């Protein structure tokens, strides 16, 4: 005879997402085009697809709905390219120093400023918070 598990002990073994109040999954079939349209509309609204569907169907995205930051792909690509260039410069400086040669401090400081600026731009474009 199997004993029923105590509900309190079950909740202790669940992950954080399983403890949330939204425990029902509503599978929906759609075409690839419809799925992409949902993703696009959700991103335009700054919501996840699930939050967008709750908003459309229920009139409310829910209290835990997070607005996804809109990312300008072109600006992000430019910022990543700038970071890659600065990283390449830092690598060349490190290689030069490891070979026993002196590196110009002005060049090193300039490269560090470029790296920091690129990282800050990426942080701003992705909506992240943090210090560099």
Question: How does this model look, in words?
Answer:
The protein is mostly helical and 132 residues long. 60% of the residues lie in helices and 0% in strands. Helix 2 packs across helix 3 (49-58) and helix 4 (73-98) runs antiparallel to helix 5 (105-126). The longest helix is centred in the middle third of the chain and has 26 residues, at 73-98. It is elongated, with a radius of gyration of 24 Å. The relative contact order is 0.08. The model has no long low-confidence stretch (mean pLDDT 76).
Number of contiguous helices: 5
Helix residue percentage: 55-70%
Q: Outline the low-pLDDT stretches.
A: none
Number of strands: 0
Rounded average pLDDT: 76
> Could you tell me the strand content as a percent range?
under 5%
Rg calc: 24 Å
Bulk shape: elongated
> Structural class, please?
mainly alpha
Along the chain, the helix and strand elements come as HHHHH
Through-space gap between termini: 60 Å
Characterize the main sheet.
Answer: none
Main attributes of the structure:
mainly alpha; 60% helix; 0% strand; elongated
Topology:
Layout: H1 7-13, H2 32-45, H3 49-58, H4 73-98, H5 105-126
Helix pairs in contact: 2-3, 4-5
Summarize the structure.
The protein has 5 helices and no strands.
């Amino acid at each position: 005879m199997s004993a029923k598990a105590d509900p309190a002990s079950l909740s202790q073994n669940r992950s954080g997402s399983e403890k949330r109040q939204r425990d029902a999954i509503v599978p929906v079939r759609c075409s690839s085009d419809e799925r992409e349209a949902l993703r696009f509309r959700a991103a335009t609204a700054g919501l996840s697809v699930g939050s967008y569907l709750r908003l459309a169907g229920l009139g409310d995205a829910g209290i835990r709905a997070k607005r996804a930051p809109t990312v300008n792909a072109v600006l992000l690509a430019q910022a990543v390219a700038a970071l890659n260039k600065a990283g390449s410069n830092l690598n060349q400086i490190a290689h030069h120093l490891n070979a026993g040669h002196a590196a110009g401090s002005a060049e090193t400081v300039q490269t560090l400023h470029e790296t920091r600026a690129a990282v800050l731009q990426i942080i701003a474009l992705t909506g992240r918070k943090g210090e560099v």
